[in-house]
Amino acid sequence: MIIVLLGPSGSGKSTIENELATHHGFEKIISYTTRKPRDGEVNGKDYYFTDQNSFATMLNAGILAEYDRYTYDRLYGSLKSDYLEGNKVVVLTPNGFRQVKQNCPQNNIFTVLVRSNLGTRVKRYIDRCGIDKFDYKDKDEICNRTERDYGMFLGLEREVNLVVDNNEGTDINDVVNEILETERMYNV
Ligand SMILES: Nc1nc2c(ncn2[C@@H]2O[C@H](COP(=O)(O)OP(=O)(O)O)[C@@H](O)[C@H]2O)c(=O)[nH]1
Ligand SMILES: Nc1ncnc2c1ncn2[C@@H]1O[C@H](COP(=O)(O)OP(=O)(O)O)[C@@H](O)[C@H]1O
């Protein structure tokens, strides 16, 4: 089964993905992106970091299951060959997910929308910047992300298999267990 995680920025998708990969035997599908690595990110582990030309070559070769353009025109995509078999987990955008549904076998895909309230997401974003380093540029980025995410995830509940809430104070293990228990019911 392939678990697809969707949700606004800061909802906790990457954290859940890492839990599933580290403790529950799911292989992480490594995406390709044209964005630059952040401090501490490793090529081939967090993403395959690539450039616009190489990304276009993959796209023209027809080997991508899906791709999407996200913040600052950055491209993100994943390979068709990654969706064929195995127990895997991937973080996608709603557009990417809709392409996967069209381009890949559907019966082994289990999709989860991860939600958290706006206050929690803003707090997590500020924590990531460091409260003492937070400035006007960051404030603008929070507003941009929030507005974009609002439209992007509106109504998505109806397209997924499970909706989980991951707010401040929620134990991430409870969220992961809910995902695994529900996924098992789909996997019989
Ligand atoms: N369509 C698609 N979206 C992806 C893929 N990998 C990551 N994303 C999306 O890109 C978003 C941005 O990720 P990232 O650049 O790591 O930074 P973040 O905004 O801080 O989470 C994620 O929230 C995902 O929704 C992919 O392979 N395909
Ligand atoms: N249930 C939780 N309890 C405490 N911290 C959490 C929880 N879920 C996520 N976080 C923290 O919130 C931040 C954003 O989570 P992340 O997984 O990067 O979100 P996303 O991938 O959706 O943008 C991270 O610092 C993460 O450690």
Automatic annotation (TrEMBL):
Task: Give the EC number(s) under which this enzyme is classified.
Answer: 2.7.4.8
The keyword Kinase is annotated on this UniProt entry: yes
UniProt superkingdom: Bacteria
The record places domain Guanylate kinase-like at 1-184
**Record's SUPFAM superfamilies?**
P-loop containing nucleoside triphosphate hydrolases (SSF52540)
Q: Which reaction does it catalyse?
A: GMP + ATP = GDP + ADP
Molecular function terms in GO for this entry? Answer: GMP kinase activity
SMART domains given in the database record: GuKc (SM00072)
Enumerate the UniProt keywords alphabetically.
Kinase, Transferase
Offer a single GO CC term for the protein: cytosol
InterPro entries the UniProt entry points to: GK/Ca_channel_bsu, Guanylate_kin-like_dom, Guanylate_kinase_CS, P-loop_NTPase
Question: What family does the database annotate?
Answer: Belongs to the guanylate kinase family.
Q: What does this protein do?
A: Essential for recycling GMP and indirectly, cGMP.
What's the protein here called?
Guanylate kinase
Q: What is the lineage of its organism?
A: Bacteria, Bacillati, Bacillota, Clostridia, Lachnospirales
Q: Which gene encodes it?
A: gmk_2
